[in-house]
Amino acid sequence: MASSDLSGPATERPGGVRLTGVSHRYGRGGDAVTAVGPLDLTVPPGEFLVLVGASGCGKSTLLRLIAGFERPTHGTVQVSGAAPRPGQGAGVVFQQPRLFPWRTVEGNIDVALRYAGVPRQEWPERRAALLERVGLQGVGRRRIWEVSGGQQQRVAIARALAAENPLFLLDEPFAALDALTRESLQEDVRRVTAQTGRTAVFVTHSADEAVFLGSRVVVLSKRPGRVVLDLPIPLPRTGATPEELRASADFAALRARVTQEVKAAAA
Amino acid sequence: MPPAPAAPELLAEPGAAPAAAPGPARRRRPSALWRLALPFGSLLLFLALWQAVAAAGTWSETLVPPPAKVWDAFLAVSTTRDGVRGYNGTYLAEHLGISLRRIAFGAGVGIVLGVLLGLVMGTVRWVRSLFEPWISFLRTLPPLAYFSLLIVWLGIDEEPKITLLAVAAFPPVAVATTAAVAAAPRHLVEAARALGASRWEVVKDVVLPSALPETFTGVRLAVGVAYSSLVAAELVNGLPGIGGMVKDAANYNNTPIVLVGIAAIGVSGLLIDALLVRLERAVVPWRGRT
């Protein structure tokens, strides 16, 4: 899906992200706080980029800029070669599931399919495929509050995947979950993105999560966030089981490196 | 209410209370019989006190008629007795039915208008600024205050009654809907936009459903206000109608009929509110879960 016949720089192809001289300020005058930048960042299509940093370093702001919810005070943000607009070209998963409580699990998927312009007769099939992809079968008719927090976040992921956007943005999606659920969801996200070849930008404060998920990890300094480390993660994306991966010496070394940088940046 | 603390009652699982310790277990989970016994007991106690006060004869029968007389009045207005059909030629149930129809129509109009204006006021700031002071003013007025004006303007038939009920029901719904629409959860609006919803889709799929629970509260309030304005609406030319019956009976110092009318208004009001609560649970099952 990420492959494209379009010519030009990689970041202008579907799913590519380019940030040029971007900084963002909240508020005006004396109360203004620069949350992030200035920084430059390019994400070629198909990459799984993880942004790591201590809380308050502006990593969520960066994701909101890429999603198009905010426009940067300085610099330009480009997604697939154009200024990003919410709901166009990127699926977003937030820290909280943000499901619509007046709809069932299925209803939440259906509304996303409708917004994506999928014809109604294709919904049952697409919905079943999406729910299966995030490991949710048999709960489609349940109310949102009848499924667990981990399942709710799975629904949110399925919903964000519904439009089959070339870019997938995740803002600390597993922070509120217990360790077991978190690990299983991490594995699912890793598998899903590896299968579909989508670009992903994932925000977290956990070095372990960053190294496990990312094909590239960027560590941000404390506010205003700037790039202090840009590290490719040469771990296998497919083949190895999660357990083998986590047990490998390479994984441990990379995680130690990222942990150290995050700590140094926060100090 | 039994003096049981709430927390253990909530925590106790159905099978958790061991049969070996009946004392504390029973205190924690009052049986259905006990829960019914208290309200019924209070009702019986009230009737006994009433009977005692009436029998003591401190006040005349016009002021405090004994329960038996009120019961007799109830039977009299529900049947044809000595060739007299109910009260003033109309049975109690018919009086009530006519009044309920007025409420349904009047409050219905007020609720529909209130929801519509509330939607616009909640979404468009200047419309809200324009109308809010007037609605607040209207809300503080007791319906009796403008009833005379409605009589002058609209005569003494159905028009002023329906209008009064509509005007009384309108403000609570408008205010509740406005507040609910204006306070649409931003995180869900953002989630919908992230999924590609258009402006209109955000309104239709997020703002409106999220406003439903509070709007429903407004509707319940409105029906309550309309109900409490019923007697006022039927003050002039209110027969047939339950409020008119109360007013008319009061003119003749017929206290038993007045009490029957008051009881009928109260009981039907409770039933309607219970109905609305059930409807709310069916329409807004997510209430309190967001």
Automatic annotation (TrEMBL), chain A:
GO terms for molecular function: ATP binding; ATP hydrolysis activity. SUPFAM superfamilies: P-loop containing nucleoside triphosphate hydrolases. Residues 1-23 are annotated as: Disordered. Keywords: ATP-binding, Nucleotide-binding, Transport. Residues 17-247 form the ABC transporter domain. Pfam families: ABC_tran (PF00005). This is ABC transporter ATP-binding protein.
From TrEMBL, chain B:
It is a multi-pass membrane protein. Gene3D superfamilies: MetI-like. Residues 96-276 form the ABC transmembrane type-1 domain. It comes from the Bacteria. GO terms for cellular component: plasma membrane. Residues 7-24 have a biased composition (Low complexity). The lineage of its organism: Bacteria, Bacillati, Actinomycetota, Actinomycetes, Kitasatosporales. Pfam families: BPD_transp_1 (PF00528). Keywords: Cell membrane, Membrane, Transmembrane, Transmembrane helix, Transport. Signal peptide: none annotated. Residues 1-25 are annotated as: Disordered. The chain crosses the membrane at residues 36-59, 103-124, 136-156, 162-184, 218-236, 256-277. This is ABC transporter permease. Its main location: membrane.
